Every structure is written in structure tokens, then in C-alpha cells.
């Protein structure tokens, strides 16, 4: 499984990646039978953080998830809940 992170208007943080990546991969691994590519984009827009996750699977499935919150960790957790 390949998980990439992009940051826009937010300073790149390895701590944030270490927080989000295991949670994202744990959710997706339950449903994966073939390799998956995950791309997470974190953007700050004013006081809000926008977290977007694009998942492309080897089984031919693709989906996109978005969440927005004033707290970055809460935005990641909201995205995982969706």
C-alpha cells in the first residue's frame, strides 16, 4: 500500500503524518485485496483545515473523501469516520 501526503499552505509535519497514516491504512486494509494508492492533501483555508483523501485500488475502485474543521487532528478524524 502506498500512502502519500501533500501539504498546501501548511508546514509539512512528520508528526502529523505519523498520526494519520496508520489510521488511514488500518481502515483501508480491511477492504483491500490488491495494491492501493492513497493520496492525502491537507490545506489550510483561513482558520479551517481541509483534508482530502483519494483512494485508488487495484480492484478498480476509486473514491474521494473530504472533511473540514478548525482543528487539524479533528479534520483527519472526521475524514476517517466518513
What does this protein look like?
- The protein is elongated, with a radius of gyration of 12 Å.
- The chain contains two helices and four strands.
- Helix 1 (14-29) links the parallel strand 1 and strand 2.
- The protein has 82 residues and is of the alpha+beta class.
- The mean pLDDT is 89.
- It is 32% helix and 43% strand.
- Helix 1 (14-29) packs parallel to helix 2.
- Strands 1-2-3-4 form a four-stranded mixed sheet, with helices on one face.
For the terminal residues, how far apart are their CA atoms? 20 Å
Q: Compute the gyration radius: what is it? A: 12 Å
Mind summarizing the main beta sheet?
4 strands, mixed
- The string of secondary-structure elements, in order, is EHEEEH
